[in-house]
Design a protein that fits this description.
The complex is a heterodimer of chains A (about 240) and B (about 250). In chain A, about 20% of the residues lie in helices and about 25% in strands. With about 240 residues, chain A is α+β, with helices and mostly antiparallel strands. Chain A has a single domain, classed as Oxidoreductase, molybdopterin-binding domain (Sulfite Oxidase, Chain A, domain 2, Alpha-Beta Complex). The relative contact order of chain A is 0.16. Chain B has 7 helices and 3 strands. Chain B starts with 17 loop residues before the first strand and ends with a helix. In chain B, about 30% of the residues are buried. The chains are: A alpha+beta (about 240), B mainly alpha (about 250). At the A-B interface, α1 and α2 of A face β1, β2, α1, α2 and α6 of B.
């Protein structure tokens, strides 16, 4: 504030000056126009994703629960974007592995089931706001990655699914000890609604980051535009980290 | 400041500075510099951010308008989506995750400014303010007599403004836990579980939605002079400046 307000004119000039100092707030008006709005919201989302990625710790565990806290099986929703049952031929199913791996190829479910079994009760959080605590069994995705000789210095895993869903995640999250290649829920083989024969479970990410009916996994450093994720390409956060 | 030096001891309450000027007709008058720049700037930035956070938050809520189990499907409360921001869940999340930075940023700068200056003494609700709340409420809402006011903010105002800081803190902490419920999972049990965190995040929104209409009514009741001082900082009302000046005299 000006210490020299000797006349009324000076006072009014000072008041006007103070008012003008608020003008930068008018920049927020850019949000009213379609093009700048799209750009700014994209930047805002990218900033939030970067912060999410930066604060992610591989050693930091999502909460695990006692068996008594697990949501009853019939209360675990079937959530899908298109169909609950993409009619995969389970007997002929293989997981196709491609990209930066030493041993690319088609892996049977029995190949995955030779890996150390892991089971956990973790919370499944939907971007919509609901949550369930599920029992998931399978193997750590990191075990699958080491079996296929994946280059874990690569940036991304890209998944394609039997229902034409597609998804990508960061390697850091893929190697998290609670990230599973899951073929069992509640002690039974995955049923079709829950993503049979294979779903990816990532309790440190939102539900839409956890593909079901997985048919293909690619280790890569490049995500082509339009191949970041089914929902991400329409505007969801890519990191989707919890 | 010419004419009068404002004196306030750090241990005592804060009084906005008063300046003396000569009016066009040659009379000496006083004016109070009520709202410093940091307060005005963060106020308006926060107003924008809160508008967007609330509007997009309501849209996000509509994606699952309930607080318990997902199954069986049920609505707790639903309202028309046209009164929300973002168009759909994904759009609303983009607004929410963009403006959260401005909301948190303006809140932090404001609180930092308040605690590093003596400004907080004006608005922090203290135990001694409790007895003044009911008389002020009676005056505003039940046509009771106007209580004697000794400070620049009355007890009800202090309660409201201190309350919004707490609502802001609640919305930020619960929002952060919802956003990073994996990394911050250790904070979930103290809040009574994940669903309770989501409920509390919504409670903070309802609190703001209760504060805002009351705030608007008060702004209208107190008129233009009061409103424009949140833009220019100066309160041109002569009585206001006189009262601040006499307070400063009493303090010194």
């Amino acid at each position: 504030m000006s210490p020299n307000l000797s006349t009324e004119n000076e006072l009014h000039r000072a008041a006007r000056r103070e008012l003008l100092k608020l003008v930068p707030l008018g920049l927020a008006g850019a949000f009213l126009f379609t093009e700048p709005q799209r750009w700014l919201l994209g930047k805002g989302l990218a900033l939030s994703d970067a912060a999410s990625h930066l604060t992610f710790r591989r050693g930091s565990m999502a909460q695990e629960f006692r068996n008594s806290a697990v949501t009853p099986f019939e209360k675990f929703p079937y959530n899908f974007w298109d169909v609950a049952d993409p009619e995969i031929d389970l007997a002929a199913w293989t997981l196709t592995v491609e990209g930066l791996v030493k041993h690319p190829g088609d892996y049977k479910l029995a190949d995955l089931q030779k890996l150390p079994r892991h089971e956990q009760n973790t919370r499944h959080v939907c971007v919509e706001g609901w949550d369930v605590i599920g029992n998931f069994g399978g193997t750590k995705l990191s075990e699958v990655l080491s079996m296929v000789g994946a280059d874990t210095s690569a940036e991304y895993l890209y998944f394609e699914c039997g229902d034409d869903y597609y998804q990508s995640i960061d390697m850091e999250s893929a190697l998290h000890p609670q990230t599973l290649a899951c073929w069992e829920m509640y002690g039974r083989p995955l049923n079709r609604g829950h993503g049979a024969p294979l779903r990816i479970v990532i309790p440190t990410k939102l539900g839409y980051k956890q593909p079901k009916y997985v048919e293909k996994m690619v280790v890569t450093n490049v995500l082509r535009p339009g191949h970041r994720g089914y929902w991400e390409d329409q505007g969801y956060s890519w990191f989707g980290g919890l | 400041m010419r004419g009068k030096t404002v004196v306030h001891k750090p241990q005592q309450r804060f009084i906005p500075p008063v300046a003396v000027f000569r009016s066009r007709s040659g009379v000496e008058r006083k004016v109070s510099y009520e709202h410093p720049f940091a307060v005005r700037f963060t106020h308006w930035l926060n107003a924008i951010a809160l508008f967007v956070m609330a509007g997009s938050g309501l849209r996000i809520y509509l994606a699952f308008p309930a607080f318990g189990d997902k199954l069986p499907p049920h609505d707790f409360f639903r309202f028309p989506g046209r009164y929300t921001i973002g168009g759909w869940l994904g759009g609303a999340l983009q607004w929410h995750f963009t403006f959260m930075w401005l909301f948190v940023g303006s809140g932090l700068v404001y609180v930092l400014y308040e605690v590093t200056t003596d400004n907080w003494r004006q608005i922090l609700f203290m135990p001694r303010d409790i007895r003044g709340v009911w008389p002020m409420f009676r005056h505003y809402f039940l046509f009771g007599p106007k209580p004697e006011q000794e400070e620049s903010y009355n007890p009800l105002q202090k309660l409201a403004y201190t309350g919004t800081i707490l609502l802001g803190a609640l919305s930020i902490v619960t929002g952060l836990i919802l956003y990073k419920s994996g990394q911050l999972s250790f904070l979930i049990p103290p809040f009574g579980g994940y669903r309770m965190v989501r409920i509390l995040h919504f409670v903070a929104l309802v609190g703001f939605l209760g504060f805002i209409p009351g705030h608007f009514v008060m702004v209208i009741v107190h008129g233009w002079n009061n409103f424009q001082s949140m833009l220019t900082g100066f309160n041109f009302k002569p009585e206001y400046a006189e009262q601040r000046a006499s307070e400063a005299d009493n303090e010194s």
